[in-house]
Write a structure and sequence with these properties.
Elements: H1 25-32, E1 35-38, E2 41-44, H2 47-78, H3 85-101, H4 105-115, H5 120-141, H6 148-178, E3 186-190, E4 196-200, E5 209-212, E6 216-217, E7 222-226, E8 229-232, H7 234-237, E9 243-245, E10 250-251, E11 256-257, E12 262-266, H8 274-286, H9 291-321, H10 324-338, H11 341-361, E13 363-365, H12 369-376, E14 380-384, E15 394-400, H13 408-418, H14 425-437, E16 445-450, E17 454-459, E18 462-468, E19 482-487, E20 490-498, H15 505-514, E21 519-522, E22 537-539, H16 544-556, E23 561-565, H17 571-576, E24 579-582, H18 588-593, E25 596-598, H19 605-639, H20 645-664, H21 672-676, H22 679-682
Parallel strand pairs: 14-21, 14-23, 21-22, 23-24, 24-25
Antiparallel strand pairs: 1-2, 3-4, 3-5, 5-12, 6-11, 7-10, 7-12, 8-9, 8-11, 13-25, 15-20, 16-17, 17-18, 18-19, 19-20
Helix pairs in contact: 1-6, 2-3, 2-6, 3-5, 3-6, 5-6, 5-9, 5-10, 6-11, 6-20, 9-10, 10-19, 10-20, 11-19, 11-20, 12-19, 13-14, 19-20
Amino acid sequence: MPACKHCGLPVQDYTQSKRDLFCCFGCKMVYELGMETADGGPKRVAAPTAYKLLVLRWVFAFVLSMFQVFISITIFFEGERAPVFLGWVNFVLGTGVLLLLGSSFLPNLWRELRALQLSLASLIFTGTTAAYGLSVWSVFTGLGEPYFETASMILTFYIGSLLLDAHFKRKLAAYGKSFADETPPEVLVQGTNGTAVRQPASEVSPGETIFAEPGAQVWLDGIVTGGEGLVDEAHLTGEAEPVRKQAGDRIRAGSLSIDGGLILQVTAAFSESSLQQYLRKVRENRYQPGRYERMAYRGASLLLGFVMLTAAAVLVYYVNTADWQIALRNTLAVLLIGCPCAFSISTPAAVWIANQRLQDSGLLVLGGGQTIERLSDIDRVVFDKTGTLTEGLGLTNPESGNPDRFPIEESLCLAGGLEAQQQHPMARAIRSFLQQTGLDPAPVQQTELLPGLGLQGRWQGKNLLLVNHTHPVSAPHLQPGELGLFEDGELRLRFRFWQPPKAQLARVWKNLSSDGIPAIILTGDPGLPPDWAAGTNYRASQSPEDKFGMVRAYRAKGERVMFVGDGTNDMLASGAADVGVAMANGTSAAKEAADIIMLHPNLMVLPVALRFARKVKRKIRLNFFWALIYNIVGMSIAAAGLLHPFFAILAMILSSLFVTLNSLRIRTLEPELSQLAGAVGEGVASPVKKWETPELS
């Protein structure tokens, strides 16, 4: 999908032709006004500079417009006693405003006329130039009334709304790029002399040999040709338990090598790896136009036609029933009150304020206005479990193999000593458990990694083993999922790992349920749901494709789905959902593909945000309804000859002021969002409930 030349967001097919790579007229105008001529040819000014230049022009034009309003008030109330030179001053000021802000309208209007695809910008410019042209004729002939201030104010208000929209879209693009790691990751590649050479993954070709480093991510698809070890595929499969890999096994990009020692033959280039394919599939579904944006773009031609037909009918009627000056005045009033400035301001203003509120509460909305619209319609939430609803790994159920000989405290210290230098999640969980219970790791010596099995070491002349159930010594003692500490072949300690739930889950389920939004948990873990998820809709052993299929099935039934996950395995489901949410601790790939990124781990912000989005939608609808009814009623009054063009511009300003104030009220919606704002800087929204520490004997 092509990107906008100004802000970098995707260009929708309904907004521009293929040759105009801009997502909106505002971005196009900012870009083109940033063109300067140097050495006889066009020269691009940097986008921030172009935007600042246009803002400066707009400020200057706004000041000139205010002077025109004051002059016009004087002329209107003084009548024939007003000095003649004031009309010429208005002419100079109005011409300056038109040159400052209207220069990019003409080429766009010409292209739209040729393509028979008129836009809202064309309607605004038509009314503006009509007011300006009639005013010039009035000043030079001395007949009729000038309306320079009317043309200037319309143009100034409209360009102000475009600046707001373009600025917001640039911020969205910048946020998206900040979460996309543009630096290719590096991998260890086998050199010509057998040594390991570090180089970018994008430069590695299929058939080359790479080494998996302990605790590092595997960035390329490959087949294990040597060594064996544990690989964490949770971000791909959703399974929390590491998988043992050996010669002949396949490893997909994005996996985490726990203990290293694996030698892989690359099977696909970095750009064609399974991880990058996930990214491409998700990007295809990421940006979709919002309903109100489609209404604005597609309805502009109909609105323009309606206004033009009404103005033409008014002109013909009053030419035949009155004089031509009255006909021109009433026609101009119809054109001016028909210019939907409030219509153009309402959506970007409301969306901008709503995005700021959500960002302050810890939700970074990357999809723009269409994401907030879709968020307001969500009627089902699908959660990943591992890493999304859980808080890391916890140690549970430590049990001594012989309580009389092996105290649990001492055995835990030995396990911590064996794992003292390891960086995989299970080692960190053991060390964290010791810290919480006030124990210190024992001084274990000669520790050695046993790939795919565990660790061994020596303590006070005795051999220690900390291994999983696949080690030969553990066969009669350990069950799958358990770790055992052995001393000279005798079991000292066995324990399990578990994933403690986040503290706020009960509140999340209660709030979603009270709002009539069902939730379901999809996980790659096998077996029954944990105790904390026992009352919820829960499905285990779900592959990435299964999650994707579930989301598609819900949407096929007419449900609008939000998917919340943290890993690469969630990307397909997230892309298929109406709104995809990536957790704060999620992978960079998941964040890059998401519509919303959480800046802290408190899931309670999601049900609050859903209620907030529904209220924002009602505000936008009210703005649309007001702008439409206001324009229709105003055009009717103008067509009846009861609205002077000067009061038409005042009425348009009041309408714009109403929708702006109504949009500003969004800042007061859902006060609970403000209570969540403090969590952004701290990184934790509420106290994280740790796992229960068992009593030690």
